[in-house]
Amino acid sequence: MNEEEKEPAPPHRPIWSGSISIGLVNIPVKANPLVRDHSISFRLLHVRDGQPIRYERVCEHDHETVPWADVGRGYEVRPGEFLLFDKKELDAVRPESDRRIRIDKFVYSLGLDPVYFNSNYLLLPDKNPEAYALLLAAFRSEGKAGIGRITLRTKEYPAIIREYRDALILTTLHYRDEVMDPRVLEELNSLKEPSKKELELAVRIINELSGDLDLSEYHDRYREQVEDLIRKKMEGETIRVEEPKAEEAKELMAALRETLAQMKAGQS
Amino acid sequence: MEPSPTIEFSNTGKVLFPSLGITKGRVIEYYIRMAPRMLPHLEDRAVMLHRFPEGVDHEGFYEKDAPAGTPSWVTTAVHHSETADRDIHYIVCDRPETLAWLANLASLELHVTLSRVGNPRVPLFAFFDLDPQPPAQFPEAAEVALQLRDLLVEAGVRSYLKTSGKKGLHVLIPLEEKYTFRQVRDAVHSAGILLSRRSDRVVHEASSRAKRPGSVLVDYAQNAAWKTMICPYSLRAREEATVSMPISWQALESGARPEDFNIGTVSSKMDDPWRGILSDRQEIWTESE
Question: Which chain A residues are Cβ-neighbours of B35 within 8 angstroms?
Answer without folding.
Answer: 259, 263
